[in-house]
Amino acid sequence: MRNPLRDEGAAFRLVLAAIGYFGLIAVGSWISTWLGLAVFVVLTAGAVWFVWTGRRERPARHRVASDPGTRRILVVANETVEGAELLAAIRERVHGGRAELYVVSPALNSKLRHWVSDEDGAREAAQARLDRSLARLEANGLPAQGEIGDADPVQAVEDALRGFGGIDEIVLSTHPEGRSHWLERGVVDAMRHRFDVPLTHVVVDLERQP
Question: Which residues, 6+ apart, have CB-to-CB distance to 105 below 8 Å?
């Protein structure tokens, strides 16, 4: 789900909605206690329905045919973005042919900082990892583009697809089970359910990296 405070416009709309919500309840209560209660129930039920349907809505599937002989691969990774296993998996999928690579590095952040839109530190760290990853891919003959994504990796993919366009495959890199927050949250299954393209899950054990 998107962070409702991720930009000033969204925060302003949230404030206006809150003012309207409490204002209508106050007016109803001033007229009659029962009317105020009825307004509260109706508005609250409407808000719950809006949030629930928004979370369950599945976005449009993304699939655009690549140019002949060119594979378009979206790589999603954060702390594992420089892992040897990830590089090997990308090489395997390119098979010496032409490929367009787009790397998305979601900005890891604490829940508190994320909800108050304090993401500068997380984005700076993610940018540094992304820059090193792109340089490493370039050095291995795999030029790529990239961007910092939303803290939610599923939302980060959704956002990236608006700029990168159609893809042939998603390559998702995570820490091993037991050390991966993404695996605990079921991100792999969520992406397979949401995006109608093949998804390869690559496990990168940074503790075993040379």
Answer: 77, 78, 81, 126, 127, 129, 130, 133, 146, 147, 148, 149
